[in-house]
Amino acid sequence: xxxxxxxxxxxxxxxxxxxxxxxxxxxxxxxxxxxxxxxxxxxxxxxxxxxxxxxxxxxxxxxxxxxxxxxxxxxxxxxxxxxxxxxxxxxxxxxxxxxxxxxxxxxxxxxxxxxxxxxxxxxxxxxxxxxxxxxxxxxxxxxxxxxxxxxxxxxxxxxxxxxxxxxxxxxxxxxxxxxxxxxxxxxxxxxxxxxxxxxxxxxxxxxxxxxxxxxxxxxxxxxxxxxxxxxxxxxxxxxxxxxxxxxxxxxxxxxxxxxxxxxxxxxxxxxxxxxxxxxxxxxxxxxxxxxxxxxxxxxxxxxxxxxxxxxxxxxxxxxxxxxxxxxxxxxxxxxxxxxxxxxxxxxxxxxxxxxxxxxxxxxxxxxxxxxxxxxxxxxxxxx
Length: 383
Ligand SMILES: Nc1ncnc2c1ncn2[C@@H]1O[C@H](COP(=O)(O)OP(=O)(O)OP(=O)(O)O)[C@@H](O)[C@H]1O
Ligand SMILES: [Mg+2]
Description:
By secondary structure, the protein is α/β, with parallel strands linked by helices. It is built from 16 helices and six strands. It is globular, with a radius of gyration of 22 Å. Mean pLDDT is 83; it is low at 75-93. The structure holds adenosine-5'-triphosphate and magnesium ion (MG). Magnesium ion is lined by residues 158-159, 211, 253.
């Protein structure tokens, strides 16, 4: 097996060449090399034993994949009639597997997620135990879970929770870039969905995760043709999953659950809705602690007090607050100051200019849910 450092070196080489090609406007070639670079970083991250390297390599792989996809989008144009116009790309229809999917076992576990204890329990029962206690479940005639739809305000841990679920049960995590599934080419979107399920079936056990599923599974009544076909194909594929044999579970996440085609919530599909709420005070305390763990903190910094003054802030807000607070002494040191620890006053400075991000989400969510008449389905939002 090749070493992590040699794989990473190859990845760097490809990434560099890709950038040169992109500068020369050779989009198709650049995209190809970005994908190669992403693939090598991904492989390096699977081999390396160094945790920091692994995280960096994964980030780089995702970043390069995004770059490749953005080139794909900018290199392909559509005419009003859906007829192909000049494009820098040849495989215009279905995307390659690399484009669609990041496949790995994630490095985020339950211990990295602050709060949400009841959600973790739900996930254990619905996802982890059926994988880890297969025989028991069989004995009692219980089938492994139907699909689970995680929903709730932005930045409160939906994507993290999905990753952690895969890590906790040691399944391959097939994260689908939903935005890359939708193609206006006739048939291509369906092919992309099929490919995702085929890939998952080849794994020993796998979790397919459709993040931001609202971008592909809108209400069919309001959708354009190609989007309707995506939903239909997704429904067909989900109906075809026999969880007992397939060792395959399906998760999705959205912060606009009301926008999703209700047919996706029928039994056997995403019949289980799991609400991921904003963090309460205890959870905020833990999230602060998680984010401060690896940073030099002065004695006057008190996670409990920070949790108290950050009501309505999301987990993502808290992560950003910690980062921005750390930027203050870092900036001073970069300008030649004596390095010092992060102090409470740095947090106060950051909080003065940063408002909670999720209040507006609640207003919008309530309005939209009332409009769709599904207050009983999404009751948690009104609590
Ligand atoms: N409960 C939590 N514990 C620890 N960190 C959290 C938690 N919730 C959010 N975070 C932080 O916020 C970031 C974003 O979280 P995540 O991507 O899971 O949110 P999300 O619910 O998927 O948001 P979106 O709806 O915008 O996709 C995480 O990378 C993490 O740093
Ligand atoms: Mg998310």
